[in-house]
Amino acid sequence: MSTDLTRLDVTGLRAALADGSTSAVEVTQAHLDAIAARDGALNSYLHVDGETALATAADVDRRRAAGEELGALAGVPVALKDVVVTDGVPTTSGSKILEGWRPPYDATVAERLKAAGTVLLGKTNMDEFAMGSSTENSAYGPTRNPWDHDRIPGGSSGGSSAAVAGFLAPWSIGTDTGGSIRQPAAVTGLVGHKPTYGSVSRYGLIAFSSSLDQAGPMTRTVADAALMHEVIGGYDHRDSTSIDAPAAPYVEAARQGATGDLSGVTVGVVRELGGDGHTDGYEPGVLAAFRAGVEQLRALGAEVREVSCPSFDLALAAYYLIAPSEASSNLSRFDGVRYGLRVGDDGSRDLDEVMAATRAQGFGPEVKRRIILGTYALSAGYYDAYYGQAQKVRTLIGGDFASAFADVDVLVSPTSPIVAFPIGQRVDDPLAMYAADLCTLPASLAGLPAISVPCGLSEGLPVGLQVMAPAMADDRCYRVAAALEAAQDAARGGRFLDQLAARS
Length: 504
What we know:
Heterotrimer of A, B and C subunits. The protein has helices spanning 10-18, 24-42, 50-65, 108-115, 158-165, 182-188, 222-232, 250-257, 284-299, 315-330, 351-362, 365-378, 384-405, 430-434, 441-446, 474-492, 498-503; strands at residues 45-48, 77-81, 119-124, 171-176, 191-194, 214-219, 266-270, 303-307, 410-414, 450-458, 461-468.
C-alpha cells in the first residue's frame, strides 16, 4: 500500500484492514518506524514494546486470514497514557516513585481496548500523577508540541496529544481531571472528549482526584473519538462510581452532526468564559478563532445566545482546593513498602524514615506542592474554611449548569484561553500554569461531558472550541463538534491536521 499509513485516521485504517489493502503488521510497523524516527524530538512515549506489538498484530492477521470473528478495532494501533494500569507493561504515572513497576492487571479501559483487538504501541508521557498543564512536570523530561518543538503539548496528557498530532499513533487514551484531555487536544489540533463522570470506568486508573478523574479519547476526528468512547464506555461493577445506564449512540450522533445541519439546536455562549467583560487572560487570536467558530455554528442552523454562569468565576479556586485535597489522600499509598521506589532501607532507619526518604526522592516538586496544599486544606481548623467552602462552590457551579441547560442544548467556550506557550515560560509560576485550565474546570467540577474540537489557528498554532452538555448527553457534544469539524474541513479544503502534515 503506497499511502503513508501513519497519516490515516482510525476510520481509514479500519477500512484498509477490512478490505485487505494492508495488514495489521504493516500498520503497526509503520507506526513503530515513525516512533523510532521522530519521537526522539518529541519525547511522547515513555515505553514502547515493538516486539509485543508486532506479535499482537501478527495474531490479528492470522485470525483474519482464518475467517475468525474479530473485535471491532482489530489491528488498529493505540497508545495509552501512562496513568492507565496495563498488565505486565511498565506504568509510572510520570513519576520516579513508580519507576519499573509492572502491574499484574489491566485497567478497564485497557481491557476493553484489548478485547476490541487493538494493538498497544506503548505508554505515553504525562505530568507526574496527572498534575500539570504542560507535561513539563514529568519525571522523564518534557514532551514537545509537534506544531513547534519549542512549545508545550498541553497537559497532563501531553504525551498522548503529541503522539497523535505527531502521527506516532492514530489515537490515544488520555485522562481528564481538570482539563487534561481537552486542553492538550486544543493546543495540538486534536479532538479530545471528557466523558460524563462515571460513564467510563476509573478502575485501574492511578488516582489523582477520585471525584474528578475521567478517561477519554484523544483523536484526529470527532468520528474516531465517538468510536473509542463506545468501546471503552459502559458500566463496570469494579468502579463504585460507574453509572449503570445505557449510553447514547455516540457514533450515530457524530455521523448526524457531520451532515452539517444543526437546525433546532440551541447553543449558549458562556459569558464568563471569554465573553464580553471577561477577556482578561484570553489571547485575542484565541477569542477571534472561537468567535468565528460560533458564527459557523450559527450558519449551520444553530440558534446562538449568550448565557451567564456567574459561579464559573470561582471554579479555578475551588478546583485547586478539591483536587489537591483528594490527591493528598490518594498519594499516601505510595510509601516505598509495597511496590515502586524504596529509599533508605539499609537497616539503620525505621519505617517512617524510609517512607519519608522514598517520598522526598520519588515525588517531584509539583506533586509535593499539591500534597502540602491538600493536606493543609483538610487539616483540623481549616477543613470547613477551605475544602468545605470549595465543595459549596462546586454545588453552585452545578446549579449554574442546570439553569443554563434549561434554556440551551449545549454550552460553548474556548477550550484554552491561550495557545501553546514556550517550554519553560510558566514552570516557575504555578498560578499562571493553573490558569491554562480556566475554561475546562467548570465541566470537570460538575462531572459533565465536554469536547474540544479545532476551530482555527492563532499565530500559526491551534485553537480549540469546547462544547459542554448535560450529564449523559455526550451525544450532543459529538453532534455539534462533528458539525463544526465538517464545516471547517470544507472551508479549508482538507482536515485540520493536514496543515501540520504538510510541514513534516
